[in-house]
Fold:
Amino acid sequence: MAKEAGKVETRGRPRVTEDSRLTGKQVKFVELVATREGQDTLRNLAAEAGFSVKGAHTRAYEMLNPNKSPHIVKALRERRRELAEKYEVTYSRHIRDLQRIRDEALENGAYSAAVQAEKARGLAQGDIYVNKSEIRHGSIDQMSKEEVVKALNELKAQLGEKVIDVEADGVKLLEGAQG
Structure:
């Protein structure tokens, strides 16, 4: 029998494409993989989704193979994107969440937690708190006597009320002295 032009073969299972519908088990598998991948094996996730325990490993492999199940791979990619958007850390969300944490902590009388949340908000703002650090190399033991005397004289100029008097035989702190 000759085939008619333009007629599509209808025997067997229809070919799966990215636009094919997912079954209930497949939908559950996609959700489990998107939310718990790395916490459990794909075999266990497939079994939890309702696939036979004996064939769960094979089903998981087939469902994540883009050549065999492009519709499942597409659904998984979209679900991961949705989750990434939902849990994305943005500046405005971060500030809003810290404010909510602060307010709830105040309502519950957890003042330390409220202070920490408010401090974190200030640090996130960037210009409220300034983090200063000074790195010093070496120690006074590595300095010559002349370098120590010079450093003490610089401190003397900076101190004002409290003056360090540098002598050849030692150092004295003179309260209220000028000079």
About this structure: The first strand starts at residue 163 and ends at 166. The chain has three domains: 24-87, 91-125, 140-174. DSSP finds seven helices and two strands in the chain.
